Amino acid sequence: MTLDALLARAARRLLEAGSPSARLDAEVLLCHALGVDRTWLYTWGDREAPLLERARFEALLAARAAGQPVAYLTGEREFWGLRLSTSPHTLIPRPDTERLVEAALALGASPRGRLLDLGTGTGAIALAFASERPGWRVVGIDLSPEAVALARHNAERLAIGNVEFRAGDWFAALEDGAERFALIVSNPPYIAADDPHLARGDLRFEPHGALVAAEQGLAELRHLVVEARAYLVPGGWLLLEHGHGQGEAVRDALAAAGYGEVATLRDLGGHDRVSLGRHAEGGTGGGRS
């Protein structure tokens, strides 16, 4: 069987299994099994599929048909042009989160400063920002030691040196009263426990604790809004990713906590995605470096 024929059959199987991106998933898995990129696959699709690689691909295909995320099967996902290692201990980086990176870069235009990424997971947000702002010092924190180890691995593999990762529960990993940041960003848990999406797609396999929060998904967002003020420099910004129906609630929380210039930004799909507010005590500096 040629690679083209194998790919077409695989795409049909994934489509029947309910994959929303069946052809792309099949291509990515076949490339992974063969150890090639998609350009090679398009060029040499008329070649016969090698037996060993075909068997490896069939195993990956079966796992994907059962619902396992492509990013966990291949062990990697691209985010902000960076190829990141992934694992079931962390959320899979998603394109919507790049909106948070864009906003942080726009606000963090100073040549030097400090950024804090809470709930860093693979390190995606921290590494994307650090790669664009080499003069900044970036700190990423996650409750999961496995996530911290993975984020450090990604930083080393990508040779991004202006970032460090620590294990801890939100701000507990910081030196109390001694560390301040010009930007604090987070993609925290924000899905309600009874949300039906948790039983669908990739979410079924991602770590529950990184997805679900109390108070209809708002508990961690509200906690960060209140606590972040003590770790922001005057004029510093807090930026939070959230669900598309939570913009108003997060804006209300920011305003109630005394932040100024509160706003919500939309993602490429036109949905509320990132809400932000500024520490109201004046100043626009980039923070200590």
From TrEMBL:
Query: Can you tell me which residues bind substrate?
Result: N187, P188, P189, Y190
Q: Alphabetically list the UniProt keywords.
A: Methyltransferase, S-adenosyl-L-methionine, Transferase
Show where the Methyltransferase domain sits: 113-190
GO molecular function annotations of the record: peptide chain release factor N(5)-glutamine methyltransferase activity
- Spell out the reaction equation it catalyses: L-glutaminyl-[peptide chain release factor] + S-adenosyl-L-methionine = N(5)-methyl-L-glutaminyl-[peptide chain release factor] + S-adenosyl-L-homocysteine + H(+)
Q: What GO biological process terms does the UniProt entry carry, in alphabetical order?
A: methylation
Q: Which InterPro entries match?
A: DNA_methylase_N6_adenine_CS, HemK-like, Methyltranfer_dom, N5-glutamine_MTase, PrmC_N, RF_methyltr_PrmC, SAM-dependent_MTases_sf
**Enzyme nomenclature, EC number:** 2.1.1.297
Q: Output the Pfam families linked to this UniProt entry.
A: Methyltransf_31 (PF13847), PrmC_N (PF17827)
- EC class, as a word, reads transferase
Which superkingdom, per the lineage? Bacteria
Task: Indicate which residues the UniProt annotation says bind S-adenosyl-L-methionine.
Answer: G119, T120, G121, T122, G123, D142, W170, N187
- Domain Release factor glutamine methyltransferase N-terminal: start-end pairs: 6-75
Give the family, as the similarity comment puts it: Belongs to the protein N5-glutamine methyltransferase family. PrmC subfamily.
Its biological purpose is as follows: Methylates the class 1 translation termination release factors RF1/PrfA and RF2/PrfB on the glutamine residue of the universally conserved GGQ motif.
The entry's protein name is Release factor glutamine methyltransferase
Organism name: Halomonas gemina
